[in-house]
């Protein structure tokens, strides 16, 4: 007797080519025909049968067609020393059930019923089971060229779409640019993956107008009933006519005689700026909590005024005077902040810039050993060797 089952509740990876390898399950005492490891091709069927044969017992064989374009006539036989003892034949069709593309969310049930042939109104079995509907049938990755945008900039994005089988998705996709109150601003008609020239990969470009609503916007990808969004922030700011740069060393020793640095100013066209400049040095302890905002605190500072500023200026402050500003805190527990305000004579514009430097103790020398540069990958365990010595 042969019991045929077409693709219900059976999982496995078996192929229909190559010589079969027999494996057993000690608990259920069944026999599996496994040929995937020998053939290495797409699996076609699954066969499940008992390992033990007993007299006067029904020997059941379960056959599942994993991929079949048409029905198959399956014949199973049991042989003893090349002599056929029992056989059965059954017509088996592929058991794959495709969900319609227009499936909507709701309560779904899986219903399996079997009818007895040759019997009037005979139902062999009936089974119902609740199943969960999930609209996410794709893995959608949305990447943008930046996180914050200004007016008249271009929002460039790329979208990667993969199925649950990690294969590219080749159907049309809708992409929308919406504001926070769900009003569609732009929906480009070129999001059908460029006529499938780049299957599973989309590149889009939105040009922002001069006037728009400032705030959080959404880049929305709609594929059938699945919706994926990525938030982007749209701001409005205007750059200055020129920029001021303050360059200092990130770390200085408390035994240095001077604290040195330079201030430079250039137009956006890289032309030099001529005017005057005010440079101030502040010393703040690093281990002290922030001051109460309700209390007005006047910070002491050292100031240097440059009457004739021409594109750049090098400054230096004595460390002894900075140490007096840090009192009663030790200087090696503080950081130095340099603020520079550069004024342009003809435009009557003042632009600020600043930089910070940490003061460290010179009695200890710390060095990271190893080949430089050190290379590591995220999530990878790595070892770092550090050498520390005391300077006498």
TrEMBL record:
Keywords: Signal. Gene3D superfamilies: 2.60.40.1930, 2.60.40.2950. Residues 241-283 form the Macroglobulin domain. Residues 1-20 form the signal peptide. It holds the Pfam family MG3. It comes from the Eukaryota. PANTHER family: CD109 ANTIGEN, MACROGLOBULIN / COMPLEMENT. This is Macroglobulin domain-containing protein. It comes from Rhipicephalus sanguineus. The lineage of its organism: Eukaryota, Metazoa, Ecdysozoa, Arthropoda, Chelicerata.
């Amino acid at each position: 007797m042969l019991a045929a089952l077409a693709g219900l509740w059976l999982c496995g990876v078996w192929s229909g080519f190559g010589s079969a390898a027999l494996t057993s399950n000690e608990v259920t005492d069944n026999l599996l025909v496994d040929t995937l490891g020998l053939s290495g091709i797409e699996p076609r069927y699954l066969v499940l049968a008992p390992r033990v044969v007993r007299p006067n017992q029904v020997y059941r064989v379960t056959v599942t067609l994993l991929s079949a374009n048409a029905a198959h006539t399956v014949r199973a036989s049991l042989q003893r020393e090349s002599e056929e003892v029992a056989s059965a034949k059954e017509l088996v069709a592929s058991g794959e059930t495709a969900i319609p593309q227009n499936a909507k969310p709701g309560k779904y049930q899986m219903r399996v019923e079997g009818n007895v042939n040759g019997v009037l109104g005979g139902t062999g079995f009936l089974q119902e089971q609740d199943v969960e509907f999930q609209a996410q049938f794709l893995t959608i990755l949305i990447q943008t060229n930046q996180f914050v945008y200004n007016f008249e900039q271009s929002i460039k994005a790329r979208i990667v779409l993969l199925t649950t089988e990690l294969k590219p998705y080749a159907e049309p996709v809708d992409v929308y640019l919406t504001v926070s109150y769900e009003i569609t601003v732009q929906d480009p008609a070129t999001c059908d993956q460029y006529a499938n020239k780049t299957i599973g990969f989309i590149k889009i470009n939105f040009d922002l107008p001069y006037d728009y609503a400032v705030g959080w916007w959404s880049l929305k990808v709609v594929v059938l009933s699945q919706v994926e969004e990525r938030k982007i922030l749209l701001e409005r700011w205007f750059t200055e006519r020129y920029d001021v740069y303050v360059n200092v060393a990130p770390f200085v020793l408390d035994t240095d005689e001077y604290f040195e640095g330079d201030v430079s100013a250039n137009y956006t066209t890289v032309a030099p700026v001529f005017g005057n400049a005010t440079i101030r040095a502040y010393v703040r302890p690093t281990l002290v909590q922030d001051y109460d905002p309700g209390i007005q605190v006047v910070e002491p500072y050292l100031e240097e005024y440059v009457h004739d500023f021409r594109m750049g200026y090098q400054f230096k402050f004595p460390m002894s005077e900075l140490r007096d500003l840090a009192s009663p805190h030790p200087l090696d527990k503080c950081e130095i902040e340099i603020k520079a305000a550069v004024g342009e004579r003809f435009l009557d514009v003042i632009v600020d810039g600043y930089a910070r430097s940490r003061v460290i103790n010179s009695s200890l020398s710390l060095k990271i050993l190893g080949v430089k540069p050190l290379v590591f990958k995220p999530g990878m365990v790595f070892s770092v060797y550090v050498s520390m010595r005391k300077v006498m």
